[in-house]
Design goal:
About 35% of the residues lie in helices and about 25% in strands. It has about 500 residues and is an alpha+beta fold. Strands 1, 2, 3, 4, 5, 6, 7, 9, 10, 11, 12, 13 and 14 form a 13-stranded antiparallel β-sheet that branches. Strands 8-15 form a two-stranded parallel ribbon.
């Protein structure tokens, strides 16, 4: 166990993965009235899971390490209203000035060419670098990009999957770029390209969550996309940036949260101007910041602890005993549980791919753009589900859990993506994609973790049950179980909110 004075992990101490042994975020004590409905739904769901009526009977679905996650209601998402006075730009010069980072890193177009139909909207009268360190409004960083899927065929093909639904990885890549632009706009009025290594830069520290708002299936590739980003909270050196994704006549189809870090001289974190957000938005941002700190502490403890905590060991032993009952007489090994009809071994779902970091994937700072890494990781998760299901029909992505970027990836590096399905229940799957660098300049080659993505998919009618077959897989299964349960709580909340909105319109 780390001491009370233990420091956060350095680059040499960072977790080899993001497997967390502890049981989720701690219950919040300042729940709002809006969260009371969620807690009631959570209690009902917990009773169902504990009694086994909500899922498979042979493998336990509710355990002590998952119980705490059920008591933390999701933080309500409150979008910032559109400013009363806005300025729209379509020319290449104005667009590149408004979203310079996205322009150079994601769109990668020339300085005198703007993609047909691309529109950037920003608040009028916003403050920039001249404001110094005085408090900012979220509208100073507020920026909206209209991606013209309805009129621009190139954009439409880039942002749709093979079933003409959302290519979520591509949207995540664009959102990450726009989040960086919002950070630049907050700190100094906008992105300024410079070769000076001491120039202020904004980097992605983590993607805190991506939720498809219960409407991911309603994405229509023939409708335009609206992405809106703005800063909601500023810590000592970090900023929370919210990005909402909307479509005309549909509303918000996804929202995500990014933690961006301001880097100054020598690439060291530097202080950012404070932000004064409306109380409802500020309260939600503060609660998310608290949970992020808890998640990072959990990851640190998992990396420095020699063995899992006792509650996880108890869960693992319970699962091991259930699987051992299947073992043929005289079989050796940890599990050796035979695979029954409708089941598949976890190892059979593994998929690995290795790629070079090419120049067109680098950001303006000379390292792999986090949005590009995220896009590839999400698409590897899609490929992992397709391989496991043996179907050409794509599973539906519902959410991406929090992701911590542990270290930058230099140009020319070999990046390996390792996908595996770690938990299934009915139509639901939890897919883990671990991303790391292969150090090929030494012998033997070494592998260094960069981050891990946990994604939630749904596929109809029923997903073959995944079965762990060794100790490492068993711990992955329990991690997937915890994340699945927390995701169910979020889905319950989203469904209740959607029902409330529908009833209010009647």
């Amino acid at each position: 166990m780390p001491s009370e004075n233990a420091r956060p992990p350095t680059s040499k101490q960072r977790p080899s993965g993001l497997l967390r042994y502890a049981g989720g975020v701690a219950p919040t004590t300042n729940a709002t009235n809006e969260n009371n409905d969620v807690k009631t739904a959570s209690d009902n769901l917990r009773r169902q899971l504990a009694s086994g009526t909500a899922a498979q009977q042979e493998i336990p679905l509710m355990s002590s390490s998952q119980a705490s996650a059920a008591q933390s209601a999701p933080v309500p998402h409150v979008p910032l209203p559109v400013p009363a006075d806005v300025v729209q730009t379509t020319s290449a010069e104005d667009v590149s000035a408004a979203i310079g980072f996205t322009w150079h890193t994601v769109f990668q177009v020339g300085p005198r060419h703007a993609p047909d139909g691309l529109v950037v909207t920003q608040a009028a009268g916003r403050r920039g670098a001249e404001a110094g360190m005085s408090p900012r409004s979220p509208y100073d960083s507020w920026v909206r990009v209209l991606v013209p899927l309805s009129t621009n065929l190139s954009f439409r093909l880039a942002f749709q999957d093979i079933e003409k639904s959302a290519r979520v990885g591509r949207i995540l890549e664009l959102a990450d770029g726009l989040a960086a632009d919002a950070g630049y706009r907050h700190c100094q009025g906008g992105y300024v390209h410079s070769e000076d290594p001491n120039q202020l830069s904004v980097a992605t520290a983590s993607i805190d969550s991506l939720n498809l708002a219960g409407a991911g299936g309603d994405f229509v590739a023939s409708k335009d996309l609206l992405l809106t980003a703005y800063v909601t909270r500023v810590g000592k050196t970090s900023m929370e940036v919210v990005c909402d994704v909307e479509q005309p006549d549909t509303g918000i189809v996804a929202h995500m949260y990014f933690t961006m870090v301001s880097l100054g001289r020598g690439g060291r974190p530097t202080k950012s101007p404070p932000v004064q957000a409306p109380s409802d938005i500020a309260d939600g941002a503060a609660l998310r910041a608290t949970r992020r700190a808890e998640s990072r502490q959990t990851a640190f403890e998992s990396a420095t602890r020699k063995s899992p905590p006792i509650n996880t060991l108890q869960d693992a032993h319970s699962l091991w005993r259930r699987l051992r009952r299947r073992r043929p007489a005289g079989a050796d090994g940890l599990l050796h549980a035979p695979i029954m009809q409708g089941e598949r071994a976890m190892a059979s779902s593994r998929l690995e791919t290795t790629q070079f970091v090419w120049p067109n994937e680098m950001n303006v700072h000379g390292t792999l753009f986090g949005g590009s890494l995220a896009r590839t990781a999400v698409e590897v998760a899609y490929m992992t589900t397709a391989q496991y299901l043996g179907s050409t029909a794509w599973a539906r992505l519902e959410a991406v859990d929090d992701v911590f970027f542990l270290q930058p990836v230099p140009a020319g590096a070999l990046v390996q993506y390792r996908g595996v399905i770690i938990f299934t229940d009915g139509p639901d799957m939890v897919v883990r994609v671990e991303v790391g660098m292969v150090r090929h300049g030494v012998h033997p080659a070494t592998w260094e973790a960069c981050c891990a993505f946990y994604t939630h998919f749904e596929w109809s009618p029923v997903v073959p049950r995944v079965v762990p077959q060794d100790y490492g897989e068993l711990l992955l299964y329990l991690e997937g179980l915890r994340r699945y349960h927390a995701h169910r709580i979020t889905k319950t909340y989203q469904a209740s909110k959607s029902s409330m909105i529908t009833d209010s319109k009647l």
